[in-house]
Amino acid sequence: MSAKISLVIVEDNELMLAGISGALSVYPGLEILATSSNGQEGLDFLSHYQPDIALLDIRMPGLSGLEITRAVQNLNLNCRVVILTSIEDDASLYQAFLAGAKAYTLKDIPSAELYATLKMVASGLTLIQPSVARYVLGELHQDTRPAEFSAQSVNGLKEILTDREQEILGL
After folding, report:
1. Which of 17, 23, 42, 64 could link 111 by a cystine bridge, Cβ 3.0 to 4.6 Å?
2. CA 28, CA 138: separation in Å to the nearest integer?
3. What is the pTM of this model?
4. Alpha-carbon distances of 34 from 42, 46, 53, 54, rounded to whole Å
5. Could you tell me if residue 143 is left (phi over 0), alpha (psi between -120 and 50 degrees) or otherwise beta?
6. 127-167 pLDDT tens trace
7. CA dihedral sign of residues 26, 27, 31, 34
8. In angstroms, rounded to a whole number, what is the distance separating the alpha carbons of residues 65 and 137?
């Protein structure tokens, strides 16, 4: 990884895309290589630019953020995926991590915290935003897991999470 963290941002809402790009552009440790407002173009940019990090929304035209995440894994792109979404449900979170995402954050995250997340993911960590983790832990304690959260899904999560992360989630 270079001294700067290279980044491609894929977000279908043009105003949100401009806001994210503008908020992150003030950090000297980041280099935004490209932005896109649709999934297929975003995947093309990821293949072309080979950034350290892909910052993806989940719901987008062309390809969803989850489909892009799977493609990044299938194409063996050396790129870590961070999901930035407004979707706060456990099914989306589990699907994102099973697809290969390294972090899951909500769009209400402060820009400094998003920057810190990008730095940590670039260094090799897997993260869940604390407010999302509280939601997931609450759901796990109530044992109201979605149908997709099968034994196979749990095993998939165990493969990508550290021992400490598994301990925190009670897996």
Report:
1. 23
2. 37
3. 0.78
4. 9, 9, 11, 10
5. left
6. 887 766 666 666 555 555 555 555 445 555 666 666 776 66
7. negative
8. 24
Other beta carbons within 10 angstroms of residue 123's beta carbon come to 10
In this structure, which amino acid lies at residue 141?
A: H
The pair of structure tokens assigned to 116 is: 């810190």
Report whether pLDDT(25) > 60. yes
Q: Where are the alpha helices (DSSP H) in 6-106?
A: 14-24, 39-49, 65-74, 90-99
The DSSP element (H or E) to which 115 belongs, if any, is helix 111-122
Q: Which two tokens stand for residue 17?
A: 């895309």
pLDDT in tens, 32-69: 999 999 999 999 999 999 999 999 999 988 899 999 99
98 and 157 Cβ atoms separated by less than 8 Å: yes
